[in-house]
Write a structure and sequence with these properties.
By secondary structure, this protein is α/β, with parallel strands linked by helices. The chain has two domains: about 280 residues, QueA-like; about 100 residues, no CATH class. It has eleven helices and 17 strands. The strands form three sheets. The chain has a nine-stranded mixed beta sheet with strand order 2-1-17-16-14-3-12-13-15.
Length: about 400
Amino acid sequence: MIPSIKIEDYFYELPDERIAKYPLPERDSSKLLRYVDGNVDEHIFRDLPGLLPKGSLMIFNDTKVVPARLHFQRESGAHIEVFCLEPIDPPEYNTAFASTSHSVWKCVIGNAKRWKNDLLSIYNPDSDPVVASLNLKARLIGRSDRTGEVEFSWEGGHPFSNVLDICGSIPIPPYLNRETEAIDAERYQTLYAKIRGSVAAPTAGLHFTDRVLKGIKEKGIDIRNVCLHVGAGTFLPVKSSEISGHPMHREPFVVGLDLLKRIRDNKGKLIAVGTTSVRTLESLYYVGISCIETGKPEDVGQWAPYERDYPYTVTEALDAIINYLEANNLTELKVGTRIIIVPGFKFRLVDILVTNFHQPESTLILLISAFVGGDWRTIYDFALSNGFRFLSYGDSSILFRRDIANSCENI
Protein backbone atom coordinates (compact mmCIF):
# COMPACT_ATOMS: atom_id res chain seq x y z
CA MET A 1 0.00 0.00 0.00
CA ILE A 2 1.34 3.45 -0.93
CA PRO A 3 2.08 5.32 2.33
CA SER A 4 -0.08 8.31 3.19
CA ILE A 5 2.43 10.99 4.18
CA LYS A 6 1.92 14.74 4.33
CA ILE A 7 5.03 16.54 3.21
CA GLU A 8 4.29 19.50 5.52
CA ASP A 9 5.09 17.22 8.45
CA TYR A 10 8.71 17.25 7.27
CA PHE A 11 9.22 20.99 7.29
CA TYR A 12 11.82 22.78 9.38
CA GLU A 13 12.99 26.39 9.32
CA LEU A 14 16.29 26.66 7.46
CA PRO A 15 17.69 30.22 7.53
CA ASP A 16 19.62 31.16 4.40
CA GLU A 17 22.73 31.90 6.45
CA ARG A 18 22.86 28.25 7.55
CA ILE A 19 23.22 27.06 3.95
CA ALA A 20 26.91 26.55 3.19
CA LYS A 21 27.57 28.52 0.01
CA TYR A 22 31.19 27.37 -0.24
CA PRO A 23 33.17 24.37 1.04
CA LEU A 24 35.53 24.64 4.00
CA PRO A 25 39.27 24.91 3.19
CA GLU A 26 39.83 21.30 4.33
CA ARG A 27 37.32 18.62 3.37
CA ASP A 28 37.60 16.61 6.59
CA SER A 29 37.44 19.60 8.97
CA SER A 30 33.64 19.72 8.75
CA LYS A 31 31.50 18.94 11.77
CA LEU A 32 30.18 15.39 12.12
CA LEU A 33 26.97 14.62 14.00
CA ARG A 34 26.61 11.09 15.36
CA TYR A 35 23.17 9.61 16.01
CA VAL A 36 22.93 6.31 17.90
CA ASP A 37 19.65 5.03 19.36
CA GLY A 38 18.12 8.45 19.95
CA ASN A 39 21.31 10.03 21.28
CA VAL A 40 23.22 12.74 19.43
CA ASP A 41 26.76 14.05 19.87
CA GLU A 42 29.26 16.09 17.89
CA HIS A 43 32.62 15.21 16.31
CA ILE A 44 34.90 16.34 13.49
CA PHE A 45 34.73 14.42 10.23
CA ARG A 46 38.35 13.30 10.40
CA ASP A 47 37.33 11.35 13.53
CA LEU A 48 35.04 9.12 11.43
CA PRO A 49 37.24 5.98 11.35
CA GLY A 50 37.08 5.71 15.14
CA LEU A 51 33.28 5.82 15.08
CA LEU A 52 32.82 2.90 12.69
CA PRO A 53 32.34 -0.74 13.77
CA LYS A 54 35.24 -3.05 12.97
CA GLY A 55 34.61 -5.65 10.28
CA SER A 56 32.15 -3.45 8.41
CA LEU A 57 31.66 -3.20 4.67
CA MET A 58 31.58 0.45 3.48
CA ILE A 59 30.04 1.33 0.13
CA PHE A 60 30.85 4.52 -1.81
CA ASN A 61 29.29 5.93 -4.98
CA ASP A 62 32.11 6.62 -7.44
CA THR A 63 30.03 8.53 -9.98
CA LYS A 64 31.64 11.67 -11.40
CA VAL A 65 29.88 14.99 -11.97
CA VAL A 66 30.06 16.22 -15.54
CA PRO A 67 30.03 19.90 -16.59
CA ALA A 68 26.54 19.37 -17.93
CA ARG A 69 25.26 22.98 -17.99
CA LEU A 70 25.58 24.66 -21.39
CA HIS A 71 24.54 28.14 -22.51
CA PHE A 72 23.39 28.76 -26.09
CA GLN A 73 22.29 31.85 -27.96
CA ARG A 74 19.56 32.40 -30.55
CA GLU A 75 20.08 34.70 -33.52
CA SER A 76 17.79 37.14 -31.75
CA GLY A 77 20.27 37.25 -28.89
CA ALA A 78 18.08 35.36 -26.41
CA HIS A 79 20.00 33.00 -24.14
CA ILE A 80 18.91 29.39 -23.65
CA GLU A 81 20.34 27.22 -20.86
CA VAL A 82 20.55 23.51 -21.62
CA PHE A 83 21.19 21.09 -18.77
CA CYS A 84 22.12 17.58 -19.97
CA LEU A 85 20.46 14.81 -17.96
CA GLU A 86 20.97 11.50 -19.73
CA PRO A 87 21.89 10.27 -23.22
CA ILE A 88 19.24 9.08 -25.68
CA ASP A 89 21.26 8.41 -28.86
CA PRO A 90 23.53 6.65 -28.23
CA PRO A 91 21.81 5.58 -24.99
CA GLU A 92 24.87 4.43 -23.01
CA TYR A 93 26.85 7.07 -21.12
CA ASN A 94 30.25 5.81 -22.23
CA THR A 95 29.34 5.70 -25.92
CA ALA A 96 27.55 9.06 -25.72
CA PHE A 97 30.61 10.69 -24.15
CA ALA A 98 32.79 9.07 -26.83
CA SER A 99 30.67 10.41 -29.72
CA THR A 100 32.72 12.66 -32.00
CA SER A 101 30.19 14.62 -34.06
CA HIS A 102 26.65 14.44 -32.67
CA SER A 103 24.64 13.11 -29.74
CA VAL A 104 21.04 13.37 -28.52
CA TRP A 105 20.35 14.00 -24.82
CA LYS A 106 17.38 14.40 -22.54
CA CYS A 107 17.78 17.89 -21.10
CA VAL A 108 16.23 20.44 -18.78
CA ILE A 109 15.85 23.67 -20.75
CA GLY A 110 15.82 27.17 -19.34
CA ASN A 111 13.75 29.73 -21.27
CA ALA A 112 12.27 26.80 -23.19
CA LYS A 113 9.31 28.86 -24.44
CA ARG A 114 11.74 31.13 -26.28
CA TRP A 115 13.25 28.23 -28.23
CA LYS A 116 11.31 27.85 -31.47
CA ASN A 117 13.14 24.77 -32.75
CA ASP A 118 15.81 26.90 -34.47
CA LEU A 119 19.46 25.88 -34.45
CA LEU A 120 21.32 27.46 -31.53
CA SER A 121 25.02 28.31 -31.27
CA ILE A 122 27.09 27.95 -28.12
CA TYR A 123 27.32 31.22 -26.19
CA ASN A 124 30.91 32.44 -26.38
CA PRO A 125 31.03 35.93 -24.86
CA ASP A 126 34.84 35.99 -24.59
CA SER A 127 35.34 34.83 -28.19
CA ASP A 128 37.40 31.91 -26.95
CA PRO A 129 39.06 30.43 -30.07
CA VAL A 130 38.91 26.86 -28.70
CA VAL A 131 35.17 27.17 -28.05
CA ALA A 132 34.67 28.78 -31.47
CA SER A 133 36.55 25.95 -33.22
CA LEU A 134 34.04 23.40 -31.95
CA ASN A 135 31.12 25.21 -33.60
CA LEU A 136 28.79 23.53 -31.09
CA LYS A 137 25.13 23.66 -32.10
CA ALA A 138 21.91 22.52 -30.44
CA ARG A 139 18.55 21.65 -31.99
CA LEU A 140 15.37 20.89 -30.05
CA ILE A 141 13.83 17.75 -31.53
CA GLY A 142 11.23 16.92 -28.88
CA ARG A 143 9.47 18.36 -25.84
CA SER A 144 7.83 16.98 -22.70
CA ASP A 145 6.54 18.53 -19.49
CA ARG A 146 9.83 19.39 -17.79
CA THR A 147 12.41 18.28 -20.32
CA GLY A 148 13.26 18.18 -24.00
CA GLU A 149 15.30 16.08 -26.42
CA VAL A 150 18.25 18.05 -27.74
CA GLU A 151 20.53 17.07 -30.60
CA PHE A 152 24.06 18.40 -30.27
CA SER A 153 26.47 18.65 -33.19
CA TRP A 154 30.05 19.89 -33.29
CA GLU A 155 33.22 19.90 -35.37
CA GLY A 156 36.82 18.84 -34.88
CA GLY A 157 36.33 15.17 -33.98
CA HIS A 158 36.45 15.77 -30.20
CA PRO A 159 34.61 13.31 -27.96
CA PHE A 160 31.52 14.83 -26.38
CA SER A 161 33.14 14.53 -22.95
CA ASN A 162 35.82 16.99 -24.10
CA VAL A 163 33.17 19.26 -25.61
CA LEU A 164 31.47 19.45 -22.21
CA ASP A 165 34.80 20.10 -20.48
CA ILE A 166 35.47 23.02 -22.85
CA CYS A 167 31.99 24.51 -23.14
CA GLY A 168 30.11 23.41 -20.05
CA SER A 169 30.08 24.26 -16.36
CA ILE A 170 29.57 22.20 -13.23
CA PRO A 171 25.85 22.34 -12.34
CA ILE A 172 26.01 23.35 -8.69
CA PRO A 173 22.72 23.19 -6.79
CA PRO A 174 20.30 26.09 -7.37
CA TYR A 175 19.91 26.69 -3.63
CA LEU A 176 23.48 28.01 -3.47
CA ASN A 177 22.15 31.10 -5.29
CA ARG A 178 25.40 31.82 -7.09
CA GLU A 179 27.13 31.11 -10.37
CA THR A 180 29.57 28.23 -10.74
CA GLU A 181 33.11 29.27 -9.80
CA ALA A 182 36.55 27.75 -10.31
CA ILE A 183 36.54 26.16 -6.84
CA ASP A 184 33.49 24.07 -7.75
CA ALA A 185 35.35 22.14 -10.45
CA GLU A 186 37.48 20.57 -7.71
CA ARG A 187 35.32 20.65 -4.59
CA TYR A 188 31.93 19.68 -6.06
CA GLN A 189 33.53 16.32 -6.80
CA THR A 190 34.59 13.48 -4.52
CA LEU A 191 38.26 12.45 -4.39
CA TYR A 192 37.29 8.96 -5.57
CA ALA A 193 35.00 9.99 -8.46
CA LYS A 194 35.67 7.81 -11.51
CA ILE A 195 32.69 7.23 -13.80
CA ARG A 196 31.20 10.22 -15.64
CA GLY A 197 27.45 10.66 -15.61
CA SER A 198 26.08 12.64 -12.65
CA VAL A 199 24.66 16.14 -12.80
CA ALA A 200 24.81 16.42 -9.01
CA ALA A 201 27.48 15.25 -6.62
CA PRO A 202 26.87 12.48 -4.08
CA THR A 203 27.64 15.11 -1.45
CA ALA A 204 28.20 12.83 1.54
CA GLY A 205 31.45 11.88 -0.14
CA LEU A 206 32.76 15.44 -0.39
CA HIS A 207 34.18 15.23 3.16
CA PHE A 208 36.46 12.24 2.56
CA THR A 209 40.21 12.78 2.30
CA ASP A 210 43.09 10.38 1.76
CA ARG A 211 43.75 10.65 5.50
CA VAL A 212 40.23 9.56 6.40
CA LEU A 213 40.16 6.76 3.84
CA LYS A 214 43.51 5.47 5.13
CA GLY A 215 42.15 5.46 8.68
CA ILE A 216 39.06 3.51 7.62
CA LYS A 217 41.17 0.85 5.92
CA GLU A 218 43.47 0.62 8.93
CA LYS A 219 40.37 -0.05 11.05
CA GLY A 220 39.85 -3.24 9.03
CA ILE A 221 36.86 -1.94 7.12
CA ASP A 222 36.39 -3.14 3.56
CA ILE A 223 35.82 -0.26 1.10
CA ARG A 224 33.93 -0.95 -2.15
CA ASN A 225 32.23 1.12 -4.86
CA VAL A 226 28.90 1.16 -6.64
CA CYS A 227 27.94 3.71 -9.28
CA LEU A 228 24.61 5.51 -9.40
CA HIS A 229 24.44 8.54 -11.67
CA VAL A 230 22.65 11.30 -9.80
CA GLY A 231 19.97 13.03 -11.88
CA ALA A 232 18.61 16.57 -11.77
CA GLY A 233 15.52 15.19 -10.06
CA THR A 234 17.53 15.39 -6.85
CA PHE A 235 16.96 19.17 -7.01
CA LEU A 236 13.23 18.99 -7.74
CA PRO A 237 11.02 20.05 -4.81
CA VAL A 238 8.05 17.99 -3.68
CA LYS A 239 5.12 20.03 -4.99
CA SER A 240 2.29 17.70 -3.95
CA SER A 241 0.86 17.89 -0.44
CA GLU A 242 0.95 14.08 -0.20
CA ILE A 243 4.11 12.20 -1.08
CA SER A 244 1.97 9.80 -3.13
CA GLY A 245 1.67 12.55 -5.75
CA HIS A 246 5.41 13.04 -6.21
CA PRO A 247 6.99 11.28 -9.23
CA MET A 248 10.52 9.98 -8.65
CA HIS A 249 13.07 10.24 -11.45
CA ARG A 250 14.93 7.24 -12.82
CA GLU A 251 18.60 6.90 -11.99
CA PRO A 252 20.82 4.24 -13.61
CA PHE A 253 23.22 2.28 -11.44
CA VAL A 254 25.95 -0.34 -11.82
CA VAL A 255 27.05 -2.95 -9.28
CA GLY A 256 29.82 -5.44 -10.02
CA LEU A 257 29.35 -9.19 -9.72
CA ASP A 258 32.19 -9.49 -7.20
CA LEU A 259 30.60 -6.84 -4.98
CA LEU A 260 27.22 -8.58 -5.13
CA LYS A 261 28.90 -11.72 -3.79
CA ARG A 262 30.73 -9.68 -1.14
CA ILE A 263 27.46 -8.11 0.04
CA ARG A 264 25.73 -11.49 0.11
CA ASP A 265 28.50 -12.96 2.27
CA ASN A 266 28.94 -9.91 4.51
CA LYS A 267 28.84 -10.68 8.25
CA GLY A 268 29.55 -7.16 9.56
CA LYS A 269 27.60 -3.93 9.33
CA LEU A 270 26.89 -2.46 5.92
CA ILE A 271 27.72 1.26 5.79
CA ALA A 272 26.39 3.42 2.94
CA VAL A 273 28.12 6.69 2.12
CA GLY A 274 25.29 8.93 0.95
CA THR A 275 21.64 8.52 0.10
CA THR A 276 22.54 7.52 -3.46
CA SER A 277 24.41 4.49 -2.12
CA VAL A 278 21.39 3.66 0.06
CA ARG A 279 19.07 3.85 -2.96
CA THR A 280 21.39 1.59 -4.93
CA LEU A 281 21.86 -1.01 -2.19
CA GLU A 282 18.22 -1.20 -1.13
CA SER A 283 17.14 -1.44 -4.79
CA LEU A 284 19.15 -4.65 -5.15
CA TYR A 285 16.56 -6.60 -3.18
CA TYR A 286 13.81 -5.66 -5.64
CA VAL A 287 16.03 -6.29 -8.67
CA GLY A 288 16.59 -9.75 -7.21
CA ILE A 289 12.84 -10.29 -6.95
CA SER A 290 12.44 -9.46 -10.64
CA CYS A 291 15.15 -12.03 -11.41
CA ILE A 292 13.29 -14.62 -9.33
CA GLU A 293 9.85 -13.87 -10.75
CA THR A 294 10.57 -12.83 -14.37
CA GLY A 295 13.97 -14.39 -15.01
CA LYS A 296 15.80 -11.11 -15.59
CA PRO A 297 16.72 -7.86 -13.78
CA GLU A 298 14.27 -5.00 -14.28
CA ASP A 299 14.11 -1.37 -13.18
CA VAL A 300 12.81 -0.84 -9.66
CA GLY A 301 9.53 1.03 -9.57
CA GLN A 302 8.88 3.92 -7.22
CA TRP A 303 6.40 2.09 -5.02
CA ALA A 304 7.70 -1.48 -5.37
CA PRO A 305 8.68 -1.73 -1.67
CA TYR A 306 5.14 -0.91 -0.53
CA GLU A 307 2.98 -2.81 -3.01
CA ARG A 308 3.00 -6.19 -1.27
CA ASP A 309 4.81 -8.37 1.23
CA TYR A 310 7.75 -10.26 -0.23
CA PRO A 311 8.57 -13.79 0.95
CA TYR A 312 12.19 -13.80 -0.25
CA THR A 313 15.29 -13.33 1.88
CA VAL A 314 18.04 -10.89 0.94
CA THR A 315 20.32 -13.84 0.22
CA GLU A 316 17.76 -15.34 -2.18
CA ALA A 317 17.38 -12.01 -3.97
CA LEU A 318 21.13 -11.47 -4.32
CA ASP A 319 21.67 -15.06 -5.42
CA ALA A 320 19.09 -14.57 -8.17
CA ILE A 321 21.01 -11.57 -9.55
CA ILE A 322 24.34 -13.39 -9.26
CA ASN A 323 22.98 -16.46 -11.03
CA TYR A 324 21.54 -14.33 -13.84
CA LEU A 325 24.84 -12.50 -14.39
CA GLU A 326 26.89 -15.69 -14.36
CA ALA A 327 24.47 -17.49 -16.69
CA ASN A 328 24.78 -14.61 -19.17
CA ASN A 329 28.56 -14.14 -18.81
CA LEU A 330 28.10 -10.64 -17.33
CA THR A 331 30.39 -9.03 -14.78
CA GLU A 332 28.12 -6.11 -13.86
CA LEU A 333 24.49 -5.48 -13.06
CA LYS A 334 23.24 -2.47 -15.04
CA VAL A 335 19.71 -1.35 -14.27
CA GLY A 336 17.74 1.68 -13.06
CA THR A 337 15.75 2.65 -10.00
CA ARG A 338 12.93 5.04 -9.15
CA ILE A 339 12.70 3.78 -5.59
CA ILE A 340 11.41 6.22 -2.97
CA ILE A 341 12.35 5.57 0.64
CA VAL A 342 9.82 6.99 3.11
CA PRO A 343 8.64 6.13 6.63
CA GLY A 344 7.29 2.59 6.53
CA PHE A 345 10.13 1.36 4.30
CA LYS A 346 11.78 -1.87 5.43
CA PHE A 347 15.56 -1.58 5.23
CA ARG A 348 17.05 -4.90 4.23
CA LEU A 349 20.73 -4.15 3.62
CA VAL A 350 22.00 -0.83 5.01
CA ASP A 351 22.82 -0.54 8.73
CA ILE A 352 24.70 2.77 8.95
CA LEU A 353 24.46 5.92 6.82
CA VAL A 354 26.90 8.80 6.31
CA THR A 355 25.02 11.77 4.91
CA ASN A 356 24.78 15.57 4.83
CA PHE A 357 21.84 17.69 6.05
CA HIS A 358 19.02 17.97 3.54
CA GLN A 359 16.39 20.46 2.50
CA PRO A 360 13.08 20.68 4.37
CA GLU A 361 10.11 18.91 2.79
CA SER A 362 12.39 16.86 0.52
CA THR A 363 12.37 13.17 -0.34
CA LEU A 364 15.77 12.91 1.36
CA ILE A 365 14.33 14.09 4.69
CA LEU A 366 11.76 11.30 4.32
CA LEU A 367 14.59 8.81 3.75
CA ILE A 368 16.36 10.02 6.90
CA SER A 369 13.14 9.76 8.90
CA ALA A 370 12.61 6.20 7.68
CA PHE A 371 16.19 5.29 8.61
CA VAL A 372 16.05 6.64 12.17
CA GLY A 373 12.55 5.48 12.98
CA GLY A 374 10.92 8.88 12.63
CA ASP A 375 13.43 10.62 14.93
CA TRP A 376 14.74 13.05 12.31
CA ARG A 377 13.80 16.18 14.28
CA THR A 378 16.14 15.19 17.12
CA ILE A 379 18.99 15.20 14.61
CA TYR A 380 18.04 18.42 12.83
CA ASP A 381 17.21 20.34 16.01
CA PHE A 382 20.67 19.47 17.37
CA ALA A 383 22.35 20.52 14.13
CA LEU A 384 20.46 23.82 13.99
CA SER A 385 21.22 24.56 17.65
CA ASN A 386 24.92 23.75 17.42
CA GLY A 387 26.12 25.69 14.42
CA PHE A 388 26.12 22.95 11.78
CA ARG A 389 26.25 24.02 8.13
CA PHE A 390 23.58 22.63 5.80
CA LEU A 391 23.12 21.14 2.31
CA SER A 392 25.71 20.18 -0.32
CA TYR A 393 28.75 22.05 1.00
CA GLY A 394 27.62 21.72 4.61
CA ASP A 395 28.53 19.43 7.47
CA SER A 396 27.95 15.70 7.79
CA SER A 397 26.34 13.07 9.99
CA ILE A 398 26.70 9.38 10.73
CA LEU A 399 23.39 7.72 11.52
CA PHE A 400 23.00 4.26 13.01
CA ARG A 401 19.71 2.73 11.92
CA ARG A 402 17.37 2.83 14.90
CA ASP A 403 16.59 -0.89 15.01
CA ILE A 404 20.24 -1.98 14.81
CA ALA A 405 22.02 0.62 16.94
CA ASN A 406 22.13 -1.52 20.09
CA SER A 407 23.85 -4.35 18.23
CA CYS A 408 26.80 -2.27 17.00
CA GLU A 409 29.77 -3.61 18.93
CA ASN A 410 33.51 -3.47 18.40
CA ILE A 411 33.56 0.26 17.62
